[in-house]
## 1
Amino acid sequence: MILEITGIIAAICMLLVMPLDVYLAHTKLEIAESYFEKSIFINDTKNMLRNQHFKGAPVRLMAIAAVLLMPQMFYWRKLVLPEEVKSVPGNLKLWMVAPLLFTLFTLAILVIAWLGGAYEL
């Protein structure tokens, strides 16, 4: 019973973060992309998703958050430049990364609640 309630609360939290993602995609995405002008990864993602719904804004938002969360991996593969990532202000980094981490955290809770209910832990 506790797992079902936990899963419902996590699902509600995940639904509440969706409007924040839409807000960020419409207000902060272009600002964040302006810091990655020479980035192969961000520019290719933008060009690849330009014909999708909302111009692929939610996916582009998550791509920038991934670059900000794991910059060493992208440096190593030469997909972004270190000075581009360092030039992003801390406030904007928080706006990009926090919704992704919150979404992944609630998704993990949903999976644990589902597995717990399926195997009756």
## 2
Amino acid sequence: MSARVRGNRAKLYHWAKVATEIARISPQAEMDIEKVTGIVAEEERRSG
């Protein structure tokens, strides 16, 4: 079960930052930063 499903905001933010950093430093990792920020924004809306 993911941090998102369990409602653990701190873990969600931690892993979003980790994924973003990996995508930034690794030429093989691809990530759409708009998608990541959208996921975080949606979680913030849900948590009030």
